[in-house]
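SAMPLE LOG
Freezer: B-3
Tube label: C17
Construct: single chain, 290 aa
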Amino acid sequence: MAFLRYCKFLLLAAIALAFPHLAPAFDAKRDIEYARVGELPLLLDVYVPPTQHGPLIVYVHGGGWRAGTKTEMPLGLLLREGFAVASVDYRLSTQAVFPAQVHDIKAAIRFLRAQQSGLGIDAQRVVIAGSSASGHLAALVGVTNGNKELEGTVGRNLDQSSDVQGIISLFGASNLLTILDQSTEHGREFRIPALQLLLGGQPTEKPDLAKLASPVEHIDAHDPPLLLLHGDADPQMPPEQSKELAAAYQKAGLPVKLVLIPGAVHGGKVFYDPEHTALMKEFLDSLPAK
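STRUCTURE (predicted):
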């Protein structure tokens, strides 16, 4: 029966890709201010399908921590399956060093819980998702439920929880203390300046901050289920980063699934095609109801 449901999902997803005009309509609420830091407004978009089920997905965009925007939301197939999605902007590393990015994302989750009725969403259960640099941020947010140092005081909803109940990390970093040693020369050319902006120095110069920014350093028995997707031919983000995080989860006895996609590089449509979207849907459907 599960196999038949999986095949049905693949068929419907393929039809949606081929004939997007046949996809069900959804409500898009854009440029919602969830917090303000100084004079800088922090914005998010909310996509609400006609019929919702499952947890709210909070999607964080990639871009090397220094670029990107909330408009880059690739989870359209999950939206068509009834999962509401909030796509979040945060302070980039050109605007503020770490941990500002995590403080912002946690503030967005608190805002979504505080305003869920008016936004027409159910934010009791939240799954944090991201790709590349935001795969790292998603994993870090997910494994630091209740971490006071990373909670921050951004926004007006400090009475709300920023906890998440699941993590989907696509080709993200997990250990900033090992990433450069694992990187190809091409990867180092990109990663060294990106880390300089994120941390205000290299991991060897800022070891405590690099450790704070590394998901593998925060694993404990209370962390939520984790799904990892990574291309085994990724020249920019070492697949070893996802392997490290999966190993840390396994050592702690936590639920984790790592999918290495043969021949896949850094990003691309393959991560959001019907087959791999079905894996994400299966993960989302498997999470316990609160």
